[in-house]
Recover the amino acids of this structure.
């Protein structure tokens, strides 16, 4: 197995906890003699950045891609657990980056613990469910996700994605629109991560999600699941 770790750095910088996550993942894979590459696409809008990362993955000799946003951190034990599942694709519920302080204060007054009060005021980002652990969903965000190259090549074979010119000046190759926004019949625009999940489902693959502790999300403050 060879692994690629990729980050779409929309802000042109990485949070300290994100850098630490990448360092820990690299050290772990090196320790078990697994080759690992790190790539980062900066100063690009998110759809283009994710598509470029997918193309870099396709062009590499890696067979597993770990995607991580520039404001997300994941505990190493959780990374190891999710990789060991050997799923074609899995994403994760993330804590929201912003906290409703009024709701949080009210929750504290009612006797909630800090974490329960936080999650009640600002729930985890993802489809509504009471489940915990790993389970199948219709869509999930890609703030942290793991995907196998075989799945991407299958999307190409089934013509669920097409090659297109890249608008990023520093990347001259054509790319596939894995994360291109899908426009619904009502004219609504589906987010790039949910659009990717829709294509996965169209290819008759399952979309899995992890919900539980081990993930943090940094905004003005850092929130952990």
């Amino acid at each position: 197995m060879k692994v690629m770790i990729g980050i779409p750095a929309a802000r042109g910088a990485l949070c300290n906890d994100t850098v630490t996550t990448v360092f820990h993942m690299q050290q772990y894979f090196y320790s078990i003699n697994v080759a690992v590459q790190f790539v980062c696409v900066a100063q690009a809008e998110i759809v283009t950045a994710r598509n470029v990362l997918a193309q870099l993955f396709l062009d590499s000799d890696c067979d597993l891609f770990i995607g991580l946003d520039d404001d997300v951190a994941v505990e190493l034990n959780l990374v190891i657990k999710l990789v060991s599942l050997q799923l074609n694709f899995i994403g994760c519920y993330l804590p929201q980056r912003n906290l409703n302080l009024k709701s949080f204060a009210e929750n504290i007054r009612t006797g909630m613990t800090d974490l329960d009060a936080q999650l009640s005021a600002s729930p985890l980002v993802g489809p509504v469910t009471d489940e915990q652990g790993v389970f199948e969903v219709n869509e999930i965000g890609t703030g942290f996700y793991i995907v196998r190259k075989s799945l991407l090549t299958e999307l190409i074979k089934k013509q669920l994605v097409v090659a297109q010119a890249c608008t990023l000046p520093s990347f001259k190759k054509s790319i596939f629109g894995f994360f291109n926004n899908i426009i619904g019949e009502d004219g609504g625009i589906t987010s790039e991560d949910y659009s990717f999940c829709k294509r996965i489902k169209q290819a008759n693959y399952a979309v899995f999600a992890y919900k539980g502790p081990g993930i943090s999300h940094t905004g003005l403050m850092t929130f952990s699941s």
Notes: The two ends are 29 Å apart (CA to CA). The mean pLDDT is 88.
